[in-house]
Specification:
Helix content of chain B: 25-40%
Enzyme class (chain A): ligase
Largest interface: A-B, 76 and 52 residues
Low-confidence stretches of chain A: none
Protein name (chain A): Glutamyl-tRNA(Gln) amidotransferase subunit A
Keywords (chain A): ATP-binding, Ligase, Nucleotide-binding, Protein biosynthesis, Transferase
Strand content of chain B: under 5%
Radius of gyration of chain A: 21 Å
Shape of chain B: flat
GO molecular function, one term (chain A): transferase activity
Largest sheet of chain A: 11 strands, mixed
Subunit structure (chain A): Heterotrimer of A, B and C subunits.
Low-confidence stretches of chain B: none
Order of helices and strands of chain B: HHHEE
Mean pLDDT of chain A: 97
Radius of gyration of chain B: 23 Å
Helix content of chain A: 25-40%
Number of helices of chain A: 15
Number of domains of chain A: 1
Shape of chain A: globular
Structural class of chain B: mainly alpha
CATH architecture of chain A: Alpha-Beta Complex
Mean pLDDT of chain B: 92
Number of strands of chain B: 2
Oligomer: heterodimer
Distance between the termini of chain A: 22 Å
Amino acid sequence: MSDLNKLTLSEARDGLRKGDYTSVELTEACLTAIEGAGALNAFVHNTPEIAFEQAKAADARIAAGDAPAMCGLPIGIKDLFATKGVPTQAASAILEGFKPEYESTITTKLFDAGSVMLGKLNMDEFAMGSSNETSTYGNAVSPWRRGNEDTALTPGGSSGGSAAAVSADLCLAATGTDTGGSIRQPAAFTGIVGIKPTYGRCSRWGVVAFASSLDQAGPMTKSVRDAAIMLETMCGHDMKDSTSADLPVPNFEALLTGDIKGKKIGIPKEYRLDNMPEEIAKLWDEGAEKLKAAGAEIVEISLPHTKYALPTYYVIAPAEASSNLARYDGVRYGHRATLAEGEGINEMYEKTRAEGFGHEVQRRVMVGTYVLSAGFYDAYYNKARKVRTLIKKDFEDVFAAGVDAILTPATPSPAFGLGEVSEADPIQMYLNDVFTVTVNLAGLPGISVPAGLSSTGLPMGLQLIGKPWEEGDLLNIAHSLEAASGFVSKPEKWW
Amino acid sequence: MSIDIDTARRVAKLARIRVEEDALPALAEEFNAVLGFIEQLSEVDVEGVEPMTSVTPMRLKRRQDGVTDGNMQEKILSNAPDAREGFFAVPKVVE
């Protein structure tokens, strides 16, 4: 059977159980697709031996009637997840050659459930970026193009390789991580679904740390149903992550009833930016209309501190990054600079980090160092933590007033061309996360759903934001939005 | 608040990242762009607001203070750029 790589997780799961094909066949189809997609630079370390071994084991489990939902399904893993014996570099030169001796909790859960790992996926270095242009592996390229142009577009970032791979059908789904929008923005840019769960839902153990109070992992998939299936496998309490929530994980797929009658959906007025492109505003209005037609009640809401979310993020995230990335010192793993005669340990640290970290990572580590330094800690870091409290309270007030979920655009524009947003102007790039970053600061679940095409034929996404721990309800509303939007477009194959 | 070249040099030193002298002016400029953006926070009235310590209100789990693993010296050293006789090796530290 051909085109098995184009299946969704739910279709493939059902087909495997019926015996229409095997996991080995699914895996072969994906590996062939990956081989032919070098131009996308999505997969950066391929693991066909592991994949076939896992696929054979999965076929045996399916035959024996012991098949969890993810059993036999080939997926890609973002390079941020530690995978035992497999290169794990967080797309940084400083981790060149690093092969973990351990497996992250999330990949352990996925593999225990029978998932098949095809390889590791490209991303921005240490997940710092919104276009996958800071990767040591080079840019990941979107399978989408503007009309008949051949300009290479960004798949978004930081989970750009994951987005490109899922959108181009190189794998059935992929893991992503999201610190300020790194699952939802690339999902929106490539016409796929991406959910960042509530902070604490997914264990961070074995996920290379960027900003620990904001980082969460989540699935990137071809449908909301797939997101529900994969998220359930990824969630759950882990003693090895002290911020992991000890709460039962619902069967998210069973909660996709399609019934959203009476749900109150908030439309935050502060998200209507002055310079918002017409087609994004229209997409947003139509999304609200569709939810209304499905029985939801639409209400205007106010999140007054929205404007301060990005500046708050650009204090807190670099501060935490500067602390987390202190471990890359050339001693225990990764790159160590060659020293000249007479140079000592300080030269080793400084040269190693100058050679190993890319420009954006260096910039953020230094900004973080500055805002945490004596004399500025109160003015910047503590101030940002107080504003973060206010941003979270904005959401608490809205939910307390009876709102079930909030609808916003996922991104301020469709995907841009690689190199189009200047490296010299970091603020311009940071603005990509204007709608998503509030959700990380407040620790809430957020999902991006493809909702339409731009005038240039590129996907655009809408974001739904849910209450803490209510991923089930959020997925159900997203499922309705997905059904009403009827987004079925796929990129035309040029690679 | 404006960052001059001396401050940029000091921050790079604190962050243990070598920045060549001729790259410092551009770095200071980039810092100023980012800090100018962050400066907006000064408008916000935070009188009486607690700084956030944990985004989800939950008590951290406690566990028995006991040894749960160990005896994996080889694994721990396996990725080291320089490991000798069971130790991480580094250039001379004591002057």
